[in-house]
Every structure is written in C-alpha cells, then in structure tokens.
Amino acid sequence: MRTLSGLGVSAGVGQAHALIVSPAPGLPASDPSQGTEADLARVEAALNKVADRLDERSLHADPSALAVLQATAMMARDPGLLTSVKSHLSDGHGPAHALWAAFDDFCAQLSAAGGYLAERVTDLRNVRDRAIAVMQGLPEPGIPSFDSPVILVAEDLAPADTATLNPELVRGLITAAGGPTSHTAILASQIGIPAVVRCSGARDIDDGTALALDGVTGTVLIEPDESAVAELTERANRRAEVLASTPQGDATLSDGERVLVLANIGNPSDAPAAKKKGAEGVGLFRTEFLFLDRQDAPTVAEQTEAYATVLKTFDESAKVVFRTLDAGADKPLAFADLGPEENPALGRRGLRLSQVRTDLIDAQLEALAKAAEQTNRDPYVMAPMVATKAEAKWFSSRARAAGIKTVGIMVEVPSTALRSFQVLESVDFASIGTNDLTQYAMAADRLQGELAELLTPWQPAVIQLVKATCDGAGGRLIGVCGEAAGDPLLALVLVGVGVRSLSMAAGKITAVKAALSRHSLEQCRKIADAALAASDPQEARTAALKLADPSIEVLVS
Ligand SMILES: C=C(OP(=O)(O)O)C(=O)O
Ligand SMILES: [Mg+2]
C-alpha cells in the first residue's frame, strides 16, 4: 500500500478502482489555412457547436450544475475570443493554432489575476480542447463510459464533466491540478462526491488500481489493505460526529468567550451560501474581484449594488468587512497598471496603488457609503497593505470624509504588526492577512510553490507578529482573514494571542467552530504559548496538538 496526499475539497470517504480520464487531443501537427475568412468561420462554428452542446447538457443538469454549464457555454461564445483568433490568423497561424493562441492569451490573463479567477483557466482550456476536437472531427474529450463504481483520476476535470456525474457510480475524484475554489471542487461537494485535488502523485496512478480516498484530509491510499480503509472510514465517521455535535449558531469558546466566525467572499453571490454554512458575517470581501478581468472600473452604481447586496444578506448588527481595492502584484488590473516593476509584491500594490489612483478609491468609498445609506447598515471598510501610521491615517481620513463610520486596515506587513500601537491609532479595527504577512515575514514569494515550507502561517515568527498586533491594539477588535483562520488548530492559537474574529472560506466554518467550542480561553492561551515557544512550524503544530482536546485531532490531520 502507498499513500499520496493532496488537498481534500469535498468531504467523504470513497473506495473503488481507478478510471483514468485521458487527456485532450492537443494541437494537430497539420493545420492548413483556407484563408482568414474561411478559417475564422470554421473556428466560430466549432466554438458555437461546443456552446450548443454545453447548453444542451445543461437542460438535463440540476440547478448548480446548470449554472456552471451555462457559464462555460458563455466562455465559448465570448466575442473577445473571436477577435483574438482573428488577430492570430492574420499573424499567419492556421485555424487550430490561432484558436489555441487566443485561449492561451485569455488563460494568461486569468492566471495573472490569481485566486478564484486563475482557477477558471481549467474551464477555458476545456472549451479549447472541445473546440479543437470538433475542428478535427474527433469526439469531444471527456470521461470514458463505465457502469460499475469508479474513482476518476485526471490531470484536471472539466466542470462540464463533473457537473453530470452520478455519485452512485463515481465514488471519488482525484486530480493532479485544480484548487479549492475550482469548479471541480465546488461541484463535487455540491453533488456529494469525495474529492482530492492537487495530488501530484495522481499522474502515476494506473487505470484499474484499487484506491481509497478521504476528501477532507486529502489522503489517497493506493492498493489499500482492508484495515487501512477501515481506519480511514472510522476517522471520517468520528470527524462527522464531532462536527454534528458542535452547537449551531454564534461561535463561543467553552467558557462562553465570543469569537466571531466570518466568511471570506469574492463575489456578492457567495454571501448567501456563506451564511448557510454558518458565517455570522463577512470578514473579508475581496472587492477587487469586481474589478478584475474588465477593461474599465465598475461604476459607482454597479459597486453600490454589489456592496448593498452583501450587506443585506446578513443581520443589521453583523460585521461585514469590505477591503478596498487590492490590486497589483498577484492581482494586476488592466485599467490601473502603473507600469512594470522589478518586484511587484514589494511594489505599488494595495493601498500604494490607491494613493496614486485616488479616482478609484474615492469611487469605491462613495459606493460603500451609498450602500450603507441604502441598507441602513454600518459596513466595516479596510485598506490592504498598510505599512505605516501615515498610510493608515491617509486612508482613515479619506474613508471618514466619504462618510464611512467604521474604518480599519489590514495587517499584512511586519512593520504594521510590530508598531500596531501607533499604526492603529487612527482606525477602529484591524484584520491580519496572514497570507501576505507570512510572505513578508519570511521573505518568500507566496506564488512560489517550492517555498511552501517557509510559507506556512505556523511559522513561530508569524504567530509572534499576530501577537504583537493584538498586544498593541489598545482594545480594538483584531481579526484574521488569511488562510490561517480556517485551520481549526491554528485558530485556537490565534484566539490565544488575542484574535477575536476569524474569517475563512465558508467550507471551513463548521470545523473551526467545533474546535473553538471545545476549548476555553485559558486553554487557547496555553496552546498559543506552546506554539510560540517552538522553534519551527512542525514543532509549533505538534506542541499545539498535544495540548488541544483529543477530539479535534480528526479535524486537523
Ligand atoms: C487575506 C489576505 O489577502 P489576500 O490573500 O487577498 O492577499 C492575506 O494576505 O492574508
Ligand atoms: Mg493580502
């Protein structure tokens, strides 16, 4: 038996033989041109056919799959795609190569945007592969037919394929690529199929291999013996029991101390789903998602509507935090490009960009103030990448002048964490972005996969910076909205050093609430002290786990 690990994105344990989803046809060696007009017509016809077939499949899909299939069909009908194909045809490419190059351009734009948008690249490539297959007269790529239970293993699965899977026969999905917010992940959990993504060893799994997987921990067992499967199942059952026995409603520690448990969202439409999963509010609305992938900034009216929608989703007293535009570095914006930089992560990004493009931030603040007025709510508004007291003051004056009452900043730069007692003077709250804080504390580019070991927020230095922020906060509410907040064990450490608001991907809320409800503040403080005393991330985690209630062990490993 061998064990592989990936990212668990859809809960449940599955056991069956592997069915390998073969890769798409790829570019044909011969790609003769019949003249630009004829080539363009051929590409357009292929794309339309792909879109029509997707629409047809959507007719038989359930509501969640329907939306994904229709969105994918829309990608195939995007007029921008044909404009780009035309320009590649006039550069002398054959039709298939021009189509490929046009998709490459779009994929590069989405990848550069990072996060949720980068994960749409899989959807786009699937449209491309289908269109190439149509142009060559080949069957569209996809899952081979099968009639007994399987675990599908693929480089990545297309949403169009995932959307119509039958959980009776598909006992699990394993992909080498993909991410937690890819459509494969979202659909798998909606349909109820256990799934593990980003499992690099998946590429070496042979067709027909006996497999078992745990869609929470990301564990994949190859040729497992019975006892290993029994253990996997037993742990999953215990985990389900722990989650089921966690009190619903607002989160408290076992001694009654309140901790806000909130959701990170990137789109107004994410808000109702987050609320359903137990979010008391929003700890981070990444508003730049409204700005990405567009040629112009959204208007004040458009923004107002988006912000008001989110505000209205939650109770009047809920904490709903809007982060102003965090563009630059891993999230470039077409209309706010300040030119190439040697080190974009250390360049004019976040608030620094807003200080140059005051038109953008002022429009955003105006929209937020209008949304507050329309909904009679008090939005929390914070700026990203604040490094100095002067920057915090610049932002808070501007936000207050625009009519925002509750103003905050993100703590993502070590200087701000260390000097929070001064930097926070002009604001009402702060939220620690542990993703960037870890990047800057460890001097390790967060996009550099090879540096993953340095980039964990379990780094004692990062925990110390979180503590420093809280120690200097002068009673202000300090939250964490980086990935760290969604780790049930690390959440205890964060509370132990003074954090009282945790914001995470909605799927992580129940596990974090379960961990919080089983520990007192006193215990959290002891766990935090142990993590702070450690000399490396592994030691910190082991020390924390040793002091935590044994029931949560199944939630964290
Ligand atoms: C929450 C954060 O912001 P983002 O991941 O959007 O940079 C962070 O840096 O931790
Ligand atoms: Mg950040």
UniProtKB/TrEMBL annotation:
Keywords: Cytoplasm, Kinase, Magnesium, Metal-binding, Phosphotransferase system, Pyruvate, Sugar transport, Transferase, Transport. Its EC number is 2.7.3.9. The gene is ptsP. One of its GO terms (molecular function) is metal ion binding. It catalyses: L-histidyl-[protein] + phosphoenolpyruvate = N(pros)-phospho-L-histidyl-[protein] + pyruvate. Residues 6-120 form the Phosphotransferase system enzyme I N-terminal domain. Its cofactor is Mg(2+). InterPro entries: PEP-util_enz_mobile_dom, PEP-utilizing_PTS_enzyme, PEP_util_C, Phosphohistidine_dom_sf, PTS_EI, PTS_EI-like, PTS_EIN, PtsI_HPr-bd_sf. GO terms for cellular component: cytoplasm. Residues 147-218 form the PEP-utilising enzyme mobile domain. GO terms for biological process: phosphoenolpyruvate-dependent sugar phosphotransferase system. The active site is at H183, C481. General (non sugar-specific) component of the phosphoenolpyruvate-dependent sugar phosphotransferase system (sugar PTS). This major carbohydrate active-transport system catalyzes the phosphorylation of incoming sugar substrates concomitantly with their translocation across the cell membrane. Enzyme I transfers the phosphoryl group from phosphoenolpyruvate (PEP) to the phosphoryl carrier protein (HPr). Phosphoenolpyruvate binds at R286, R323, N435, D436, R446. It comes from Cutibacterium porci. It is an enzyme of class 2 (transferase). This is Phosphoenolpyruvate-protein phosphotransferase. It comes from the Bacteria. It is found in: Cytoplasm. Mg(2+) binds at E412, D436. Belongs to the PEP-utilizing enzyme family. Residues 248-518 form the PEP-utilising enzyme C-terminal domain. The keyword Transport applies.
